Amino acid sequence: MSWTGLLGSVLDLRVTTTGALFVFVVVTAVCLATLATRLHRRWLLAGLATALVADVVIVVLAGVLVEKVWQPFPDRLPTVVYVWSGLGVLAVALLVGRWIVRRRDRSRPSAAAGLLAAATAVVLCAAGGINAVYDAYPTVRAVLGINDFRSVPFDSSLAPEPGTGESPQPGSWTPPADLPKSGAVTKTPIPGTVSRFAAREARIYLPPAYFATPRPDLPVLVLLAGQPGGTSDWLVGGRLAETMNAYAAAHRGLAPIVVLADATGGQFHNPLCVDSPLGNAATYLSVDVPQWVRTHLQVDPDPRAWAVGGLSAGGTCALQLATTRPDVYPTFVDMSGQAEPSLGDRNTTIREVFGGDAEAFARNNPADLLAHNRYPDSAGAFVVGVDDTDTRGAIEALVAAARAAGMDVHLTEVPGAHSFTVWSAGLEKELPWLGGRLGLDAL
Questions:
Q1: Would residue 432 count as lying in a domain?
Q2: Nearest to residue 201, comparing CAs of 227, 232, 233, 156?
Q3: Mind telling me which InterPro entries this protein's record contains (predicted)?
Q4: Which of 150, 199, 304, 390 is most deeply packed, by most CB within 10 A?
Q5: pLDDT tens-digit profile of 395-442?
Q6: In 161-282, which ranges are E strands?
Q7: What does the DSSP 8-state code read for residue 437?
Q8: Coil, strand or helix: which one is 366?
Q9: Strands 220-224 and 257-260
C-alpha cells in the first residue's frame, strides 16, 4: 500500500465504534492507574482522596450549572457524558495532586512527561467517549476537520441561468455524457434582509445535475442542525454529501439542492425558531432563506418542491415551520424533535422567549397548532431512534396529532438513541419518500 493509501485508511478510521470505545476504556484505566499509583504515604493518605473529592465536586457543580442555571441545551445530557467528563477531570486532578505532593515527579523530566502524557491521554479518551455518544465526528478525518467531499466556491457560475423558468424540468431533463459523478458543497452567507437575523454562513449541497448545461430546476431541502450545532454538522456527523451523492447516482444525477441554513445564530444560542427578542429566526427561515435561494440558485420556485427538515432542536424547528408556514414548507422531516419548543421547561420558555404570553407560545407550538388547525396539503416524516427514551414518546404523540390534523405523515424508527447514527440513517431512509414527494424519485 502506498503512503497516500495508508494515510487515507488512517483518516477514514472510525472512532465511534464499539471497538474504539473499548480502546478508550482500556487506555483510560491504564493511565488513571499510572497517575494514581505511587507508594508514598502522604499521597496515599491525602492526595488520592483530595483528587477524588475535587473531581466529584467539579462535575456536580458543572452539572448544576449546565442543567439548572445556564441551560444551553434543550435536552438533558446523558449520564454517560458526565461519567466521561468526570474521568477527564479526575486525570487532571491526579496530575495536579502528583505535581504538588511528589517533588520527585517535578524534578525528573521523564517522570513529569509521563504523567502529563497519561493525563492528556485520559482527556482525549474522555472526549472520544463523549463523541461516541453522539457520533458527531465519526472518523479521524472528521475529528481533524478534513473534508471528504468536493467543494466549490460560491460564484457567478452557480447563479440561475438566463431564461430560468424555461429550463427543463427534472422529468424531461437528459444528463450529458460529462456529468460529474458527485455533487459539491459550497458556502455563503444568506443575509437576514427582512428578519435582521444574524445568521452564520450557510453550506449548500448541489447535486451533479446542477453542474450540467442546461441544468434543470431542482427541488430544495432546507436542513437544520441541532442546538448546540452549526451548519456543517450535517456534512460531518450526518454524512450528507455521501448520502445525497448515492441518491443522485441512482437518479441520473438528480437530487434536491440541500441548504444547510443557520437556525440559531450561534453555537449555544437558541431562539427557538420563533420571532422574539432572541432573534427573528422564524422570519429568517421562512422569508429570507427562500427568497435568497430563489434569487441566487436555479431551483423550482413552487412550494410543493420545497421541504424543511432537521435533527433534535432542528427537527422541532422543522415541524414549527411546517405548522406555522405550510404555504412555504408543505413537506417536512422531523428527526428526534422535542414535544414543544423549550428552554428546559414551559414556564421558563414562556417567560424568557414570549414575554410571559402563553397565547403567543401556543401560536408557535406545533402540538397546539395541530389540535386547532387542518393541514390537508402537508406531508411529513418523523424519525426517532429505538433507544431514544427522551424524545420517542413525544414523537409518537406528534405523529398522532399530525394525522388527526389531516397531514399525510409516517414514523420511521432506526437503531440508536439521540445521535448522528440515527439522523444519518434516517435521512438515507427518508430520501426515497422525500424525492417522490418533491417530484424526483419516480423519475
A1: yes
A2: 232
A3: AB_hydrolase_fold, Esterase-like, Mycobacterial_A85_antigen
A4: 199
A5: 999 999 999 999 999 999 999 999 999 999 999 999 999 999 999 965
A6: 184-188, 202-206, 220-224, 257-260, 275-276, 279-280
A7: H
A8: helix
A9: parallel
For β-strands 202-206 and 184-188, DSSP reports them as: antiparallel
What's the number of domains the chain is made of? Answer: 2
Q: Which domain range does residue 111 map to?
A: 17-134
Cell of 243: 448520502
Are residues 340 and 299 part of one domain?
yes
What single string gives the DSSP state of each residue in 45-83? IIIHHHHHHHHHHHHHHHHHIIIIII---SSPPPHHHHH
Give the mean pLDDT of 243-254: 96
Structural domain contains residue 90: yes
Q: Which three cell numbers stand for residue 304?
A: 410543493
Give 272-312 pLDDT, tens digit per residue. Answer: 999 999 999 999 999 999 999 999 999 999 999 999 999 99
Element (H, E) at 384: strand 379-385
Measured CA to CA in angstroms, residue 373 lies from 153, 367, 370, 403 at distances of 43, 10, 5, 12
Long-range CB pairs of 61-66 (<8 Å, 24+ gap) are none
Q: Tell how many helices (H) and how many strands (E) occur in the chain.
A: 18, 10
